[in-house]
Structures are given as structure tokens and as C-alpha cells.
Amino acid sequence: MSQVIFTENNAAGLIARLFLGAALLPHGLQKTLGWFGGKGFFASLDGLEAMGIPPVLGFLVIATESVGAVALIFGVFGRFMAAFAAIVLIGAVVLKHAAFGFFMNWTGMQEGEGWEYHLLAVGLALVVMVMGSGSVSFDRWLTRRYWA
User: How many CB atoms lie within 10 A of CB 81?
Assistant: First the structure.
């Protein structure tokens, strides 16, 4: 367990997890609370199920984008949360966004959004998975307390 939580006092993990968490959280708030034009929890769960995602996995997607994003921001089990986020993002590309190409729908001419956002977010998740949560994190506090 120490290999998963252990993190050095570095800025790279801090920056990557803060930006990844900040990018994921609004998506989670759309799905949980209906903020930012979202539908709320049960409608989001139904929407994911309509895409062929079983309710249990739909719940995990919503939890990752909301609770997982907050955990990333605070650096709580950052490597786990970043791995879950990467899985959700890759799943979104495979199930929906790959059909629309690479680019986001900047001009409004596409039927949906491409996967460039997902690529960047997975890159941030990989930094956190490799580097850990970095400085100013719960994981760093655990590291100093138990493994320093």
C-alpha cells in the first residue's frame, strides 16, 4: 500500500492533480446535482444506461467524476483516483467521442465532441499515476507521517 500512496514533495503531481480534478469536477456536478446544464443523478444514470453502461458502472462513472475529482483536488489516494479517471475518460472516448474525430466541436458543425479533451486529461492522469499526488496533499501527509 505504501507504494501506491507514497509521494515526493513535488510540484508536478500537485499541478497535474489540481488541473485534472478541476476539469472533472464540473462534469461530476452536472451528473450529480444537475449544475452547469446537467440533468442530475437519476437522469444521468438513465442516460448512461441508454448508452449500454450497466447501472453499477454508471454509478462508478458518476462517483469518479464527482467524489473522485474532489479526492484528486485534495490529493487523497491520488494514484487510484487518477487511474479511475483515466478509465472513465478512455471509456467515454470508446463509447461516444471517437465517432466524432479528434477535435472538439468548436464550430458547431459536428454532431458531437471529439476526444482531444480526453487525451489531455488522460495525460494529466498518467502524471499523477507516475508521480503521485505531490506536495500539499493528503498522500504527502501520510508519506511524511508513516514513511519519511
Answer: 28
Residue 88 identity (one-letter amino acid) = V
Percent of the chain surpassing pLDDT 70? 100
The answer to whether 125 and 82 are in contact (CB under 8 A) is yes
Task: Report CA-CA distances (Å) from 131 to 11, 34, 78, 87, 121.
Answer: 10, 33, 10, 18, 15
Contact assessment for residue 15 and residue 49, using Cβ atoms and an 8 Å cutoff: no
Instruction: Classify the C-alpha dihedral 90-94-100-105 as positive or negative.
Output: negative
Query: Domain spans of the chain?
Result: 2-146
pTM as predicted: 0.91
